[in-house]
Amino acid sequence: MCQAVRVAQVAHTEPTGNDPRRRAIHDAAIAEFSERGYAGTSMANIADRVGVSRPALYQYFSNKGDIFVSAFVALFDDQADLALAELDADGAVAEQLDGFLQRWDGDLWERMAASPHSEELMLAKPARTTEALAHVIARVRSGTADFLTRVAPGRSKAMIDRRAGWADVLALAPKGFKTDTPSVDDYRRRLSTLAHSVAADISR
Question: What is the pTM of this model?
Fold first, then answer.
């Protein structure tokens, strides 16, 4: 997760295209949500931040909820790209897993921690946010499974079960690491411990 990075400073790409205006709206929206919270952010705030009129903003999104979903799905999609690239990077398995966890879980935790409204943002997600994020989560899980098959090949039931166990731990343990609302440094340290523990089990 490193030096604190405000959510507003993170650049995003739109998974369905490279429209610069849409990317600018995403950046502006995440900056506003970070600074004002979901309830405190209006379409007018986002339009002012991106430098367009409200009618121009409505040409891209029908309401604040639509912008929220699109912007955060784009953010998660970007992080998925970075995280999966770590699994293809040079280095030991522990380093690859640590890089993956830091980019996927650590960076996102740091960005949320930078906002005074992080709890509200996590709770105020429009209903369709979870569904919209499902393809990103599935892509990360698939990439993790491919990596584990590469570093621990084998078709026996025992090996398949071991890989499934590692995949579950890598996906679910980071959620438990957040229950006491740790500092960014503590959370990143826990992720590193998880990466090295899984790597050690893979190598035995």
Answer: 0.85
Place of tokens 């004002």: 36
pLDDT digits (tens, 9 = 90+) for 10-39: 333 334 457 899 999 999 999 999 999 999
At 157, which amino acid appears? K
Domain positions in the chain are 7-203
Instruction: Name the one residue in this structure whose structure tokens are 């409200």.
Output: 54
Domain 7-203: CATH superfamily, name plus number: Tetracycline Repressor, domain 2 (1.10.357.10)
Q: For residue 178, what is the DSSP state? A: T
**Total count of residues recorded for the chain:** 204
Q: CA-to-CA distance for 143 and 86, rounded, in angstroms?
A: 11
DSSP of 92-148: -HHHHHHHHHIIIIIHHHHHHHTSTTHHHHHH---THHHHHHHHHHHHHHHHHHHHH
Distance of alpha carbon 83 from alpha carbon 9, whole angstroms: 19
Compute the chain's Rg from CA coordinates.
Answer: 18
Q: Six-digit token pair at 76?
A: 């998660």
